[in-house]
């Protein structure tokens, strides 16, 4: 028997992901053929000290697929509608779906070698006498042939299993593409709302500077203030108008970006919401090992690593002899009843033995090539895993730090608003200069803009966290049709 063994060992100096093929060949003769390929991908283990465990991760459980859909957690019906539209229309998702269809067809083609092949042929012959005195005759003959390779070393079965693993990898790629597009749509939607709020802020600032200019002009006309105050007020208004134009341009660009994600013509017609949604409560992040069960890119890398190991075995078995059984049947005239008769075909069965003698080193070069590809896939898997760790750790850290930033900016904004209100009153009473008022307005506007961006950044980071964990949308859709575990067919 063959079996895949995947081991995840935590709390040691390295994380070892081991895959091996071991056991007996197809005919049950233990030890037939070359030894099965074994390989190990080593990764740094996640530090799971008690403090880190309490702050970020939770204890593993038997079922770590997310139980909530992060899209619905934002409680934004428009966002849900946009993501549904993007998943149905986006070009990247459609491309991944086409790759999946091609991989599944390839897997089906690979499995065909497990079964006998049956072919038929026909011929028609017409004869005429030279002088035409004897009537001509027409004869029809039909033939059939069957052939089947005895899978002595398990090469054919390995080929079928490698095709299945590639199809499973493409299935994970498709799920990953859907998750990525859903995340990009959500983040772009939040960016659009932020751009709209910043544009609103710029419009309010223009109105504020217009009022300040009118007041300064009255004071200048009345001889209360000099021309420098009037020029400063005009400069502040012009700067506010320039900022507004930039905010309008940015909002239009983000609108077109979202329309492109939705496969719409980018005509700047999509309208944003009036405000950002509330940040949902954060559910458990799970344990580090859960990432290996959730993330589509890790599942795809794992399947390709396993497929590469099988391809090494296949290339080694190509060096060994092959036994092929073949049989033929034929019939002519009006009776074709024995054309596909099993007894007739069996009676004509012959066995053929073929073995490579000289191929110019091509077969052994193919072994070396597949071993190099396996090494490549091992490193790709390790790199994908490390990237997953980094993304999760960054997003978890950002959850705390961005919350602190938003709270601090809220306090700063409240104080800036009070200071601005007080200085506006003092300026109208002639007790404060235009410079003091402009400075207070600038501080409040900058702080309010940062506060809007901080709110949006917390939402965007929550999306990044869900993408890093590989949960939510992927878990909801694929939990019911999980990627099949590696399985060797028929054994």
UniProtKB/TrEMBL annotation:
Membrane topology annotation: Lipid-anchor
Pfam families: OEP (PF02321)
UniProt superkingdom: Bacteria
Cleaved signal peptide residues: 1-19
Region (Disordered): 110-136
Sorted UniProt keywords: Lipoprotein, Membrane, Palmitate, Signal, Transmembrane, Transmembrane beta strand
One Gene Ontology CC term in the entry: plasma membrane
A GO molecular-function descriptor: efflux transmembrane transporter activity
Major location (coarse): membrane
Matching InterPro entries: MdtP/NodT-like (IPR010131), OMP_efflux (IPR003423)
Record carries keyword Nuclease: no
Subcellular location(s) per record: Cell membrane
NCBIfam families, per database record: outer_NodT
Family: Belongs to the outer membrane factor (OMF) (TC 1.B.17) family.
Protein name: TolC family protein
Organism field: Hellea balneolensis
């Amino acid at each position: 028997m063959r079996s895949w063994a995947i081991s995840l060992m935590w709390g040691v100096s390295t994380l070892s992901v081991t895959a091996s093929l071991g056991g007996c060949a197809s005919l049950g003769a233990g030890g037939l053929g070359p030894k099965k390929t074994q390989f190990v991908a080593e990764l740094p283990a996640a530090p799971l000290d008690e403090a880190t465990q309490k702050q970020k991760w939770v204890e593993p459980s038997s079922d770590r697929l997310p139980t909530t859909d992060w899209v619905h957690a934002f409680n934004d019906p428009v966002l849900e509608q946009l993501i549904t539209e993007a998943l149905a229309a986006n070009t990247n998702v459609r491309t991944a779906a086409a790759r999946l269809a091609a991989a599944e067809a390839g897997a089906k083609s690979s499995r065909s070698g497990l079964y006998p092949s049956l072919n038929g042929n026909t011929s028609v012959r017409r004869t005429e006498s030279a002088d035409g005195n004897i009537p001509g005759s027409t004869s029809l003959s039909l033939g059939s042939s069957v052939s089947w390779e005895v899978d002595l070393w398990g090469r054919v079965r390995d080929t079928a299993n490698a095709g299945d693993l590639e199809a499973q990898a493409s299935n994970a790629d498709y799920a990953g593409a859907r998750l990525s597009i859903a995340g990009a749509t959500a983040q772009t939607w939040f960016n659009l709302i932020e751009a709209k709020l910043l544009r609103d802020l710029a419009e309010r600032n223009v109105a504020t500077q217009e009022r300040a200019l009118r007041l300064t002009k009255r004071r200048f006309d009345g001889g209360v203030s000099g021309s420098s105050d009037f020029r400063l007020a005009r400069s502040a208004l012009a700067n506010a108008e320039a900022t507004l134009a930039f905010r309008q341009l940015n909002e239009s660009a983000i609108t077109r970006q979202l329309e492109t994600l939705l496969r719409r013509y980018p005509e700047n017609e999509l309208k944003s919401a009036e405000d950002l949604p509330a940040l949902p409560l954060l559910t458990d992040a799970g344990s580090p090992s859960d990432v290996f069960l959730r993330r589509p890119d890790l599942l795809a890398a794992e399947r390709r690593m396993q497929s590469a190991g099988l391809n090494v075995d296949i290339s080694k078995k190509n060096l060994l002899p092959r036994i092929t059984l073949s049989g033929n049947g034929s019939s002519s005239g009006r009776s074709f009843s024995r054309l596909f008769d099993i007894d007739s075909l069996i009676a004509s069965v012959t066995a053929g033995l073929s073995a490579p003698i000289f191929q110019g080193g091509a077969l052994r070069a193919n072994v070396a090539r597949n071993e190099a590809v396996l090494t490549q896939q091992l490193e790709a898997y390790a790199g994908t895993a490390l990237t997953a760790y980094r993304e999760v750790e960054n997003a978890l850290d950002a959850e705390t730090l961005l919350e602190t930033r938003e709270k601090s900016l809220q306090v700063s904004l409240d104080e800036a608003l009070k200071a601005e209100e007080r200085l506006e009153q003092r300026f109208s009473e002639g007790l404060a200069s235009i410079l003091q008022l402009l400075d207070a307005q600038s501080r409040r506007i900058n702080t309010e803009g940062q506060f809007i961006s901080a709110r949006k950044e917390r939402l965007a980071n929550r999306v990044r966290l869900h993408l890093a964990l590989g949960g939510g949308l992927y878990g909801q859709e694929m939990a019911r049709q999980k990627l099949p575990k590696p399985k060797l067919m028929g054994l």
